[in-house]
From TrEMBL:
<feature type="compositionally biased region" description="Basic residues">
    <location>
        <begin position="376"/>
        <end position="385"/>
    </location>
</feature>
<feature type="region of interest" description="Disordered">
    <location>
        <begin position="1"/>
        <end position="27"/>
    </location>
</feature>
<protein>
    <submittedName>
        <fullName>Uncharacterized protein</fullName>
    </submittedName>
</protein>
<feature type="compositionally biased region" description="Polar residues">
    <location>
        <begin position="12"/>
        <end position="27"/>
    </location>
</feature>
<feature type="region of interest" description="Disordered">
    <location>
        <begin position="341"/>
        <end position="385"/>
    </location>
</feature>
Length: 385
């Protein structure tokens, strides 16, 4: 008699059952703790423990990101670092936390271009008309956090440099540099800034320098993205989108040589005429459209950064930003000068700290000794000696 289906005994499998995958809570905790461990490593400055990539990404939902912050708040030193020093972006739509470690050339170039633009704003601010008053209220605020509300969640991003008017919720102009990032990444970041701010960010200036195998091309490209509203479709529906309004190529060449002798040369051939090769922003772009129209009326003007100044900034980064971070002159202690060991905490009494003797005869037996690097000259602490 054949038993009913409910009474049939299934055959015994000869294959061992696969390991049960970790549950969602376990995966979530692992991602959060991996991100925290990475943040702590960046904080300690032990970059050898990380990969060579300047960016480290983690897949975190908004709830997981908030949980990460709650864990970090249990350590005042860690949460202070996250809020004040850590460079990161969090996108709740893509559910991605990106920890950024921009290189010295990356930051240096962003800062140099920021100063070039800010100098032009200060020239305008020196006057006594509406444009001058407007310019006096625009400030270079660096990589200050920008927070967007996306579908009820907070999106946090930190541009390389930004300019913000005192009365604005968002910066009007943003600078983004890209060395290891692709042009596609740079373009996506620019569009996100403009789209997420509903066009209140009026211009994103991006500079892409060749990286890795592309470095031999020695071509840098400067791009400007702006918000645009245009009629689309058969009904003429108005649509908000982002438009790339400028793309300028800078062809440069460098010769290797002694950096201190200033023998490195630079030649630039921007595409197009000179007027087309300059970076041109409008003063009104440093605030929202309606606000700027009200404050400036017909006093709007161009903020122009000549292409040669941009080339000089690129040259400065290539010459001084790459290579040995310790290159250049610095003081070293004379032989025989005692160097007090640092205490573990700032509350310790320095008088109880051990003393080590500075000497050019140090060897690798001293774990605290770091040999001098780069060019140095000896400083006399007592001129009469």
């Amino acid at each position: 008699m054949i038993p009913p289906p409910s009474e049939i005994t299934p055959p015994v499998s000869r294959n061992s059952s696969p390991l049960t995958p970790p549950g969602s809570n376990e995966k979530s905790a692992a991602q959060i703790h991996s991100a925290i461990a990475c943040i702590k490593t960046i904080k300690r400055g032990i970059l050898e423990e990380l990969s060579t990539s300047p960016n480290h990404s983690f897949s975190l939902s908004p709830a997981q990101f908030n949980h990460l912050l709650q864990i970090a708040k249990q350590d005042q030193d860690l949460i202070g670092y996250i809020e004040d020093k850590l460079r990161y972006d969090y996108d709740p739509v893509r559910q991605r936390l990106t920890l950024r470690m921009p290189s010295s050339p990356h930051d240096s170039l962003a800062r140099r271009l920021g100063y070039l633009i800010y100098d032009q704003l200060k020239d305008v601010a020196a006057g006594d008309d509406k444009a001058s008053e407007f310019a006096r209220n625009v400030h270079l605020v660096g990589s200050a956090d920008i927070t967007y509300e996306i579908s009820g969640a907070r999106k946090i991003t930190q541009p390389d440099e930004s300019f913000k008017h005192d009365e604005m919720a968002f910066p009007g102009v943003i600078l983004e540099m890209a060395f290891s990032q692709t042009l596609k990444d740079l373009r996506r970041k620019a569009k996100d800034h403009i789209y997420d701010s509903d066009g209140n960010i009026r211009a994103v200036v991006g500079l892409k320098l060749p990286y890795g195998v592309d470095a031999s091309q020695k071509i840098a490209t400067l791009h400007v993205w702006r918000p645009e509203v245009s009629a689309t479709g058969p009904t003429g529906q108005l649509e908000f989108h982002t438009s790339e309004t400028a793309a300028i190529e800078f062809h440069y060449a460098t010769d290797s040589g002694d950096l201190d002798s200033n023998q490195q040369t630079l030649s630039g051939t921007p595409s197009g005429q000179q007027s087309q090769a300059d970076l041109i922003l409008r003063l009104s772009e440093f605030a929202s459209e309606s606000f700027a129209a009200d404050k400036l009326s017909d006093k709007d003007r161009d903020i122009v950064i000549p292409h040669q100044e941009i080339l000089q900034a690129i040259r400065w980064v290539l010459q001084d930003g790459q290579g040995n971070d310790h290159a250049g002159y610095r003081d070293i202690l004379d032989v025989g000068i005692a160097k007090r060991k640092r205490t573990e905490t700032p509350d310790d009494d320095d008088d109880d700290a051990a003393v080590e003797t500075g000497s050019s005869e140090h060897t690798g037996d001293d774990p605290d000794y770091e040999p001098p690097q780069g060019r140095t000259y000896r400083r006399r602490l007592n001129p009469s000696v």
